[in-house]
Write a structure and sequence with these properties.
Blueprint: E1 7-9, H1 10-22, H2 27-34, E2 47-49, H3 50-64, H4 69-76, H5 84-90, H6 95-105, E3 114-119, E4 123-129, H7 138-156, E5 164-166, H8 176-182, E6 185-187, E7 193-198, H9 199-202, H10 211-226, H11 234-245, H12 253-259, H13 264-273, H14 278-294, H15 301-307, H16 313-324, H17 328-339
Parallel strand pairs: 5-6
Antiparallel strand pairs: 1-2, 3-4, 4-7, 5-7
Length: about 350
């Protein structure tokens, strides 16, 4: 079975490269170190392996010596480097509509990434995760969140601030740049990348909205989406089965293989061809679901452990402490602080 690696389109790489050039960094060396060919950057429909992009981020941080490089590249990237989807967002009637479009267009950038926009009575919440539900590493996460704010301020026409910005990574030694850019509460070690935006900001009219241009760009983007099918990997098929079976206890590889009408040996071999083991896939899924469920105060910690297939609460506590370095209770306290919405005001 052929090894499969998630890909990004060149549309995701172009702004980063353009920003590196704008800030005077050694782009040819960075691209060579990351095994990204310079010539493919001219074709927006070309693709780059996800791992190559992660290497580019790592090398850019190392060579530049800039611990805040994600934020700085997001600020320096020329608007023209973002392509058609960016201009569609900037032409949207409101910030709310722009973020909705951003989620719909995400597959034009990354074929399996997860970008969602949750809307409720008080606010909207943008969330982003990598394939398999894994949190975004620090520099690209800060790059993305800075872009959310940068584009959001251009669209709304005012220097608004989010209610809170959340990151999965631990707090860096200095957070002065985060405070300067976001001008609001920034929380770390929360299990994911998210930004909470109050509804009055989301519903501000875009003073530069262009319905005619938006219609043309949206038509073109939808045509691209129709020709960009989402790929389903074998490991994703296994994850789907694991998700279904978790509540019945810890699923075994033999049981999952039987459901997929294959031998356990074939299951392990095909997962190995995609660079993952059954044990690691189960761990990732449990960790991902644990962070999601613990952020919901309506689900007790004991219930979370049960839903993840742990027969004893103590086993769940030990596993979660091993995954995150925190107890489930400590993680929940931090997550609820980040994810809670302010009370509604009386009219």
């Amino acid at each position: 079975m052929k090894t499969w690696d998630p890909y990004l389109t060149v549309r995701a790489v172009q702004p980063v490269v353009a920003a590196l050039e704008a800030l005077g960094h050694d782009v040819p060396t960075l691209l060579a170190d990351s095994r990204i060919r310079r010539d493919i950057l001219k074709d927006a429909d070309s693709r780059v392996p996800h791992q190559a992009m992660m290497t580019l981020w790592q090398r850019a941080r190392a060579i530049s010596g800039d611990d805040q490089i994600g934020i700085h590249l997001a600020e320096a990237a020329p608007l023209s480097s973002f392509g058609l989807h960016a201009y569609a967002l900037l032409s949207s009637p409101t910030l709310r509509e722009a973020y909705r479009l951003g989620c719909r267009y995400q597959r034009l950038i990354h074929e399996v990434t997860d970008l969602t926009f949750q809307e409720d009575a008080n606010e909207g919440v943008l969330r982003h995760a990598l394939p398999g539900g894994q949190p975004v590493p620090r520099q690209p996460a800060e790059f993305l969140a800075t872009l959310w704010v940068r584009f959001g301020r251009l669209i709304a026409g005012v220097n608004w601030t989010p209610r809170v910005v959340c990151f999965a990574h631990a707090a860096p030694a200095r957070t002065t740049e985060h405070e300067r850019v976001f001008q609001s509460s920034v929380r770390f070690s929360t299990g994911g990348t998210a930004m909470h935006i109050p509804n009055p900001i989301l519903d501000r009219q875009n003073p530069k909205a262009d319905p005619g241009l938006l219609a043309v760009l949206d038509h073109y983007a939808n045509d691209l989406l129709r020709h960009t099918p989402r790929r389903i990997t074998f490991s994703e098929r296994v994850r789907a089965r694991l998700m279904e079976e978790l509540k019945n206890g810890a699923p075994t590889a033999t049981a999952i293989a039987r459901m997929l009408h294959m031998s356990g040996r074939t299951l392990h071999r095909d997962l190995q061809a995609e660079g993952v083991s059954f044990r690691e896939l189960l761990r990732q899924l449990r960790q991902e679901q644990a962070t999601h469920l613990l952020a919901d105060s309506r689900v007790s910690i004991a219930e979370v452990g049960f839903l993840l297939g742990f027969s004893e609460l103590s086993s769940f506590h030990r596993a979660f402490k091993r995954w995150s370095g925190q107890t489930p209770a400590d993680f929940r306290a931090a997550a609820l602080t980040c994810h809670s919405s302010p009370p509604m005001r009386e009219q």
